[in-house]
Amino acid sequence: MDFSSTRQGLSEHVVAVPTTIWQSPGELDVAANVANAEFLFKHGVTAAVFAGGVGEHDRLTTDQQKELLGAIGQAAKAAGSICLGTGLGRT
């Protein structure tokens, strides 16, 4: 992809990197995260990085990450053509 194509792609899409919502330390709030994702997708976000994009990846267990991404993946699928990703490890 050349510069012009990259620039056009970025100007046509909105990317979000929301923080993970917790009920309490260590206890994921899946419903609140899904509601947040649905809101973002409904209001024009076309690509999103969940479950660690802002540094909380190391706080999520593998099971929590799978649960969260599975639930958000369903919301993304329901919203149509969405690009969904996850954060990885420490920076």
C-alpha end-to-end distance: 26 Å
- For the biggest β-sheet, the strand order reads 1-4-5
Strand runs, count: 5
Number of helices: 3
Quickly list its features.
3 helices, 45% helix, single chain, three-stranded parallel sheet, two-stranded antiparallel sheet, Transcription Regulator spoIIAA, 91 residues, alpha/beta
Structural account:
Helix content is 45%, strand content 16%. With 91 residues, it is α/β, with parallel strands linked by helices. The radius of gyration is 14 Å and the shape is globular. Strand 2 (22-24) and strand 3 (27-28) form a beta hairpin. The protein has one domain (3-86): Transcription Regulator spoIIAA.
Topology:
Layout: H1 3-12, E1 15-16, E2 22-24, E3 27-28, H2 30-42, E4 47-50, H3 62-79, E5 83-86
Parallel strand pairs: 1-4, 4-5
Antiparallel strand pairs: 2-3
Helix pairs in contact: 2-3
